Amino acid sequence: MTDPLGEQASPTARESSGILGLGRSGGQRSAEMLAGIRAELMPTPEYIAMARPTGRVIGGMLLRLARGDQPKINVVIARPEAYRHLIAQTLRDKPGAHYVELASGFLPRPWQLAREFPQLRVTEVDLPEVIAEKQRRFARAKLTLPPNLRMRSADLGAVPLAEVLAGERADVITAEGLLGYFPLEKVQFIAAGVRQSLKAGGVFIADIATKETIAELSTGKGVQALAIFRRNAGSWLGVLDDPAHAQRLFGAVGYSRVETYKMPELAERLPHVPKPVANATLFVIAHN
Ligand SMILES: C[S@@+](CC[C@H](N)C(=O)[O-])C[C@H]1O[C@@H](n2cnc3c(N)ncnc32)[C@H](O)[C@@H]1O
């Protein structure tokens, strides 16, 4: 499969205007806003270390604007927890596995899992400016990087993943909040590249917008906050018709089995996640 959009930089990696101090590209600004919201909602030392002060101010403002729309606010807690649950489930009984987190942004999850499981090999990938800034934040907070964690910079819409990973294959590859920023032909290109970097039986875990999730996010008190988020992060380019569309799109690039779950379905498995949770994104678990 050839890259349908050529080697040019992805829209999220290009310089664009947005809230000052939150980064030069839409990609970086989306990671900053999420880190800011998380640090305000869940002020743990790690979430605080990963957010910049401007990000927390903007995050606090977005939360105030969304006040009363708890199902959408709960998504900020539920989505990373759902990923953690799915990663742990996939890696159960595979202590020396290789886990790759694409578009890791300012999520501390790769760092946390690398520390919790010293035998696990962890690679995280994001745009160069995000990775450089993340490394500075770990250093500033005196959070030592564990030896089983590697950080790699790449524009994943332009560079094949196999090149980024130098041909190394993984047991699980995740992409939290990435695919919606690409048109569907590019999503398929990324999914195909991920499959080439998975071991036999490996799993790609991602989430993507559908017509139903966009409709749900277009109503309620959180709409204004979401509009500000989207204006600074970039709009959804890849929107699926429905879960069956995910099956076809991932199936067409060779995945042998594709499971889909709506956000609230996964949240039900997680007793510590506050409910209700909005149907804000569709989870796709694609098996190589
Ligand atoms: C919505 S944020 C999600 C970040 C993180 N996964 C989280 O949940 O907080 C999207 C992430 O995708 C990254 N990203 C966007 N376009 C990218 C690209 N072309 N290549 C690599 N990373 C990209 C951004 O830098 C950003 O960290």
From TrEMBL:
Pfam families: LCM
A GO molecular-function descriptor: methyltransferase activity
Region (Disordered): 1-26
Protein's UniProt keywords contain Transferase: yes
Superkingdom, taxonomy of origin: Bacteria
Keyword terms of this UniProt record: Methyltransferase, Transferase
Biological process per Gene Ontology, one example term: methylation
Record's keyword annotation contains Kinase: no
PANTHER family: S-ADENOSYL-L-METHIONINE-DEPENDENT METHYLTRANSFERASE YKTD-RELATED (PTHR43619), S-ADENOSYL-L-METHIONINE-DEPENDENT METHYLTRANSFERASES SUPERFAMILY PROTEIN (PTHR43619:SF2)
Entry protein name: Methyltransferase
Taxonomic source organism: Candidatus Thermofonsia Clade 1 bacterium
